[in-house]
Amino acid sequence: MRHFNITPDLTPLYRSAIGFDRLAKLAEHAANNGSNSSGYPPYNIELLGENRYSITMAVAGFSMNELEITSEGDKLLVKGTKPTQKEERKYLHQGIAERGFDRTFQLAEHLKVVGAALENGLLNIELVRELPEAMKPRKIAINSSQNMIE
Predict the structure, then answer these.
(1) Are residues 44 and 27 in the same domain?
(2) Any idea where the SHSP domain is (predicted)?
(3) Same domain, 3 and 49
(4) Sign of dihedral through CA atoms 82, 84, 89, 92?
(5) Are residues 56 and 30 part of one domain?
(6) Per-residue pLDDT for the chain (150 aa), expressed as one digit of tens each?
(7) Is residue 90 included in any domain, yes or no?
């Protein structure tokens, strides 16, 4: 199977959106580097509501003390560390990955991690967007030009 690296032309976005150059750069980065990231562990990102999200990661075989979640700035890092095995095992078939991982997610502005739970081999991370009052929509009164001069 052939993979074509097609970089999208985001010029129309630059023309019609003001102040979204960071978003466009993130989209370009994702398009260019999306094939370099490993698919382990698999994960889902879910929209639960207008400002609520959930990340579900399949972390079968990891206990709570082998998982670490760190949120710093606009990055969310999920790390799984497996201790080294003391005894040598002889596998006839090994289909279960027993390796550690680092998975980094780029978070949008004002997105906060509010909780995490491990259940049945699935790590669920809950996120909420909390907009500051200054960022919420507000109505602007329209005055006549005569009122502005006075």
Answers:
(1) no
(2) 34-145
(3) no
(4) positive
(5) no
(6) 565 556 666 666 555 555 555 666 666 656 655 544 568 899 999 999 888 999 999 998 899 999 999 999 888 999 999 887 777 888 898 887 778 999 999 888 888 999 999 999 999 999 998 877 777 788 888 887 766 555
(7) no
